[in-house]
Amino acid sequence: MVLDGFLAPADVQAVRADAEAALAAVGRAARVGGRAPTQAPQRGDTARFLRRDEEAAAGRAALAAALGLLLAVQRRLVAGGCDAGGSTSFQVACYPGNGACYERHADASPSAPARCATAVLYLNPGPWDARRDGGELRLYPFGESALHGMGCEGGEATTLVPPVGGRLVIFDSRIEHEVLPARLCRRYALTAWPTSIEAPGELEFCETQRPSSGAPSARNQPPRDARVTHPQRIFVSVAAYRDEEAQWTVAHLLRQAARPERVRVGIVWQVDETEDAAFIRIAGSAAERAKWASQVREVRMDWRQAAGPCLARALAQTLWAGEGFYLQIDAHSRFGRHWDSALIGWLADAEAASVCSRAVLSTYPPDYEGTGAAALTPEDDRPTLLCGAGFGEDGFLRLRGRRLAARAPAPLPSLFWAAGLSFSRAELFLELPYEPLRFLFFGEESFQLARMWAAGWDVLAPPASVVFHKWSRAGRHTFQAEVPQDADAKAASRSHVMALLGRCTWPATC
């Protein structure tokens, strides 16, 4: 749909001025969308994701008002029967007029699968001569055509839309499109991507992303009718904060599995899309990456929107798709040979030892040496057992892992639980999904343990080590050091945890 005059000329000028200021404040090369058939580089614009409240706070009232108008468009889409009631993300982009373009792609992509509509508002004042200035939007609306992929030159049907100021263009995010070279004038556009209300959503830069408090968000919990449909598969939850090791963690996880085909990974990348672009991937050969691509699901969010491990792990759980086993690890891990078979076998032993047959394998994994391709998996596979190390000033218990003298014959009863290695059946997180407690770090493990204990789950340590962890933080980005802490949200999360710890009762009988 094309709607001319959505903004009056005077409003176009005001919004464009604010857009220029917003890009000057934090401009960056734009990243590529999904399903593009050609190789990078694919786009030459400068772009920035926006939040309406932040633009208003920065004094860019015209731009904030334009974002409000695009939210009104989302509401009209919902009223018309479109499944667009989820969150909405916004981006402003500028093509500098030097022939910059954006090659053919679709906005609905593996990193933003919930995008259901694209609304583009052009901010180009004055007349726009498409023959002279270029920059038209070319849509390929017939995806099922026999000529699909042939392009305009090959006879494929297309629709050309010049970027006239004040014009609003709305189309299905699955439709492939491109921006033709902008030759002489700077081309500005403001884009909104509403998402499906039933999908996890584009959990990066979205308007409704931030919970108002530390309380649980039903949006991040599994649907009530969620059930295991692939009982032999393993879902691996990975929360990665600007972590160069994450790419190697995923590759090693799959390489070392006895049956890699049963492993599915859900990873939450909290990254700078420009500075961190080199490692937002699976490490390894091109053949390995192609083989494993379908087994890895992802959410990407800007690192400045990160709010701690609980939120990231809650988002990772939204990527679960019916796998029978659930493994939670940190993004800097390595694995022993056939780790998957070992954990499944030990879990069966642990369930046999559990009074209620509800068991979780968990501990602090031993360290590994080196990084990247040069990392060394230790030959020493003696297990660790969690012990209390004292209470911090915040009132939360600190833990440490103690190395045993030898391998154990069976899983060992444990008083504690660790977030960096937890293996269980999927019923654990279906019953007790992660609560996205913002800015909570210490307290995460005590909170989860209390919930498990009250529900009758037993924690046992693996009898040997098949997962290893990089404990040194040297040279690594850390959430605590880089992201400004929201004191109110952090206090609310801590209060929520302390309230639960104060009311925990003895678990019900089986």
UniProtKB/TrEMBL annotation:
Keywords: Dioxygenase, Iron, Metal-binding, Oxidoreductase. Its cofactor is L-ascorbate. The lineage of its organism: Eukaryota, Viridiplantae, Chlorophyta, core chlorophytes, Trebouxiophyceae. One of its GO terms (molecular function) is iron ion binding. PANTHER family: [SKP1-PROTEIN]-HYDROXYPROLINE N-ACETYLGLUCOSAMINYLTRANSFERASE (PTHR34496:SF9), GLCNAC TRANSFERASE-RELATED (PTHR34496). InterPro entries: Glycosyltransferase (IPR021067), Nucleotide-diphossugar_trans (IPR029044), Oxoglu/Fe-dep_dioxygenase_dom (IPR005123), Pro_4_hyd_alph (IPR006620), Pro_4_hyd_alph_FE2OG_OXY (IPR044862). Residues 207-227 are annotated as: Disordered. Pfam families: 2OG-FeII_Oxy_3, GlcNAc. Residues 86-196 form the Fe2OG dioxygenase domain. The keyword Transport does not apply. Residues 209-220 have a biased composition (Polar residues). This is procollagen-lysine 5-dioxygenase. It catalyses: L-lysyl-[collagen] + 2-oxoglutarate + O2 = (5R)-5-hydroxy-L-lysyl-[collagen] + succinate + CO2. The keyword Chloroplast does not apply. Its EC number is 1.14.11.4. It is an enzyme of class 1 (oxidoreductase).
